[in-house]
Structures are given as C-alpha cells and as structure tokens.
Specification:
2 copies of one chain form a homodimer. Chain A has helices at about 10-20, 45-55, 75-95, 125-140, 155-160, 175-185, and strands spanning about 1-5, 25-30, 35, 55-60, 100-110, 145-150, 190-195. Chain A is of the alpha/beta class.
C-alpha cells in the first residue's frame, strides 16, 4: 500500500514508519521535517499536501496539538489549539483526504486514552479526543468505499522517560504502532482502537 | 435552591422549569426570551448574565446549537457552530459560572445520545456531544466544592412529532426533565447521565 504518515517525525510516528515500511511504501509528513510538510490547522496546507502527494491507499495521522494544563489556568488559546489542531486538523484530514484515497482505502487518526480516562490537567486534551472519537463513529456511518478509525494510545514509555515520569504504566512506541498496522490492514471502520487490545 | 435555567424557552427547558419550579426558585434564560437573555457563543454575554443574576445554587443548560447534515454537505460553518455554540458555549458556562455558584452548587449541561450512538447526518452534533462529555469527565477531576454533569437526552417526542417523525422511540420532555432534577438534587459529579436510566 501507498501510505501517507502525518506526524512521521514524532515518537509514535517514527515507530509506525519503522513497522510499516517493510511491507508498504511510506510517505513521511511532519510539521517541520519529512518528505513533505503540513500545518494541520490550515485546510489550505492539507489540500496542498494531498495535491502534491496524489492518491494513496492509507492516511495515518499521529499528529495534532493540545496542551495539558490545570483547569483554572487554561486559557482560551488552549481550548482553541485543541479544537483547531488536534480535533479539526484531523477532521479536515478526513474531509479533504477522502478525495485522495484509492477505493477501499482508510484514514486512521489519533485520539488518546485521556478522552475516556482523564487525569487532572487533561481537560482540553480529553475534550478534543472525545470529540474526535464521536466524529469517527458518526462519519463512518456515511463514508462509503473507505474506512475511518481512531487509534487511542496510552502514554508512550519513551515520552514518559523523556519527561522524567515513571514509565511502568506506559507502552513502547513500537507496541503502540501495531494498532496503526491493524487499522490499515484490517477491516475496522468507525472504531476507536484502544492500543492495549492490539499490542 | 436558586436555579438558573439556560434554554428555558425550549422544549426540554420548559419541561425542566415546570418540574423544578415546585421546589426551587427558577431564573429563566433564553436566547431571545426569558427573564434574561444570553448568547452562548459569546463569553461577554455569559459573563454579563452572571453579573446580573448573581450567585446561584445550580446552573442548568438545555441550550446549544448544532446542525444536522449529510457528511458530504457539511460546511466549515456547521463545524464552527457546533464547536463554538453547543460545545464551547457550554464549556464557558462552567469556566465562568463556577465563580457564581454557591458552595456545593452544580452545573448541568446537555449533550445527547448521538455522541455515543450516532445516526447518519449527526456528525457535527455527535462530535460536539462527545467533546462535551469528555470535558465534563475531565474537568470534574479538578473542580472542588461544586459538581458538573452532562445530561444525555434521546430524541424528545414533542420535537419528533413537530418534525413529522415516528415518535415511538422518543421520550416526553417531562420524562427527560427528571434527569436534570436528579442531576441538581443528587450527588453525581463528572457523569454523563443517560435519560433512559432516570425517567
């Protein structure tokens, strides 16, 4: 398959590329590096990316920005970033990307465990994830000849270690990547795929 | 209790007022009618409302706009309305309203069954509802001395009849209202309260 990976230079994205490149042709996209660049918060940037890349069999997004922050310290900008980037950026990947998918192709987005199992400080991240998962479930009812799913990762061990956290509850990026492989190679549609069930 | 009902002139709002006014002092707020008016999409309007009303024991929102529409026909404006009004309008009721709640007070928002059980045409409604439910669950972890919940209604019989739909799967507004009463009088916190469990 010809697979477009958006967020390919991030911790999860790199592991996804590593896992998939044995069997698939990978086009790597980052916000600053990669074969191509994209700004998820801009529809023009997304459209321009797809015009340059052309038709693909699968789109994987491991991208999308949203900040952690105490509820009482969250600013309007924190809400906007989560909604415009992590949520609508990925929604727009589906709205635009569906026109550049070969028949039977798939789009796989990234939400996160915090949508369903929040922690203190995760309010805007959780909100974006919850919105994205419901978007995927609803839009899948109408999207024909293609599949759309959200992968819901737990915290990644490598990130936790980098941040000085106890990483015992985390999962390696290599293990998280297996769920993206299942999403593009399987028959899932409209699902939120919890990485704990696929590693 | 002194209860602020936002959306008091709508189908569900009227039934909530009817049910609660026997035991509580109700302040009715609508977008165009009521004791006070508010534009949920404007933080200034919400702040102005609370400054006029003063402290309350409970805030109930049965308001929030989001359009139905086929996925392929949804416009940017449909996404914006759902996010700015139904989602962020109600989120801002919590961000601002928490400063005008008496100790132990509550804020009860309205999501809807479509967040978890979408139908064709419900994409932006589902997205807003899903985001709102995750927001409620997450913010509740940090909100002290107050409670926040979302009521998740099914389709209301009166609305279905008005729209010429088969109303056999619907619930009367009077029955839906019972869940809002449970939300303000009970101990729930951070919950999405499915009206089918409370009528």
């Amino acid at each position: 398959m010809r697979v477009l990976v958006i967020g390919a230079t991030g911790t999860i994205g790199k592991a996804v590329v590593e896992l998939l490149q044995k069997d698939h042709e990978i086009i790597k996209v980052g916000s600053r590096n990669g074969d191509y660049k994209v700004d998820l918060s801009s529809q023009e940037s997304i459209l321009s990316l797809f015009y340059k890349v052309g038709k693909v069999d699968a789109v994987i997004s491991t991208a999308g920005l949203a900040n952690f922050g105490k509820f009482t310290e969250l600013k309007d900008e924190d809400y906007s970033l989560a909604l415009n980037n992590k949520l609508m950026g990925q929604v727009n990947l589906v709205r635009i990307g569906k026109n550049f998918l070969n028949n039977g192709g798939s789009i796989t987005l990234t939400s996160g465990l915090l949508g369903r199992e929040p922690i203190p400080g995760s309010t805007v991240v959780s909100m974006a994830n919850g919105g994205l998962e419901s978007f995927v479930r609803a839009s899948a009812l109408e999207l024909q000849g293609m599949r759309v799913n959200a992968v819901s990762p737990v915290f990644v061990k490598e990130t936790m270690e980098m941040m000085g956290m106890d990483s015992s509850t985390g999962m390696t990026a290599a293990d998280v990547a297996k769920t993206y492989k299942a999403a593009i190679e399987g028959e899932f549609h409209g699902e939120t795929m919890d990485v704990r069930k696929f590693s």
